[in-house]
Recover the amino acids of this structure.
């Protein structure tokens, strides 16, 4: 008998501008973002670090990140139908429109020249990363199943304070913590700049691009969003959107989440400060 697939519901369904928090930068934190039956179906069939690592050719090491992008999921016959439907919607023009309904005013308030650089936000041609290209599309969406592997050897943080790449329009994290995960840490920390000069550093990353990290001495913690199951964090990207991941304790458990992104061809701001 074919197992029924729960209907897909947007992570932003029912989220309004009243939910936006603006300290230290505009973002939403939504608990119980999905109905329980849909969340449980996704959680039960989420790939592991070992599964992803085998398919993308990446060795398993301590507290490393393993990405299974929407195109990987859609082309994998073994992946559950609920995942295929979920990533298809959350990398679609419809989801992009939901993001704009929620955050367009805040995005343009922090990046007033954005539409001069990339064109009217409502008119951008939406494609999917690893399927489409910038020759025919203006923004490439993705909805990626992500695992941070078990922490061995010593406690560690996957990544400290940083701003996401300036060619990304938004970032989203949907946490899928397992019930048995009793590790400490792995929370999302939001920062603001300390007074005075500060400087970003760039370093090579697995994506063949630059990542923009900032020494902790230049920032101070404002708030922490706990790593909890069925919790969405989403925000427009700008130079103020400083965030990082807190240190995780030694643990055999994997840290699981979905990453939501929208890539532009060119950066919207300069972090060479």
């Amino acid at each position: 008998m074919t197992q029924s697939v729960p209907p897909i519901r947007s992570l932003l369904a029912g989220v309004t501008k009243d939910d936006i928090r603006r300290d230290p930068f505009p973002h939403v934190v939504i608990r119980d973002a999905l109905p329980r039956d849909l969340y449980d179906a996704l959680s039960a069939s989420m790939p592991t670090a070992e599964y992803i690592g085998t398919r993308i050719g990446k060795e398993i090491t301590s507290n490393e990140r393993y990405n299974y992008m929407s195109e990987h999921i859609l082309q994998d016959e073994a992946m559950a139908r609920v995942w295929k439907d979920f990533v298809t919607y959350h990398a679609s023009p419809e989801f992009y429109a939901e993001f704009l309904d929620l955050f367009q005013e805040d995005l343009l308030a922090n990046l007033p020249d954005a539409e001069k650089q990339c064109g009217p936000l409502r008119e951008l041609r939406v494609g999917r990363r690893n399927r489409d290209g910038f020759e025919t599309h203006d923004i490439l969406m993705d909805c990626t199943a992500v695992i941070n592997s078990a922490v061995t050897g010593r406690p560690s943080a996957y990544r400290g304070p940083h701003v996401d790449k300036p060619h990304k329009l938004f970032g989203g994290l949907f946490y899928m913590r397992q019930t048995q995960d009793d590790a400490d840490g792995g929370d999302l920390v939001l920062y603001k700049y300390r007074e005075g000069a500060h400087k970003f550093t760039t370093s090579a990353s697995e994506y063949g691009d630059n990542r923009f990290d900032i020494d902790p001495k230049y920032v101070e913690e404002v708030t922490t969003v706990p790593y909890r199951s069925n919790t969405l964090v989403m925000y427009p990207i700008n130079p103020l959107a400083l965030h990082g991941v807190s240190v995780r304790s030694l643990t055999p458990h994997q840290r699981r989440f979905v990453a939501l992104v929208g890539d532009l061809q060119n950066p919207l701001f300069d972090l060479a400060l």
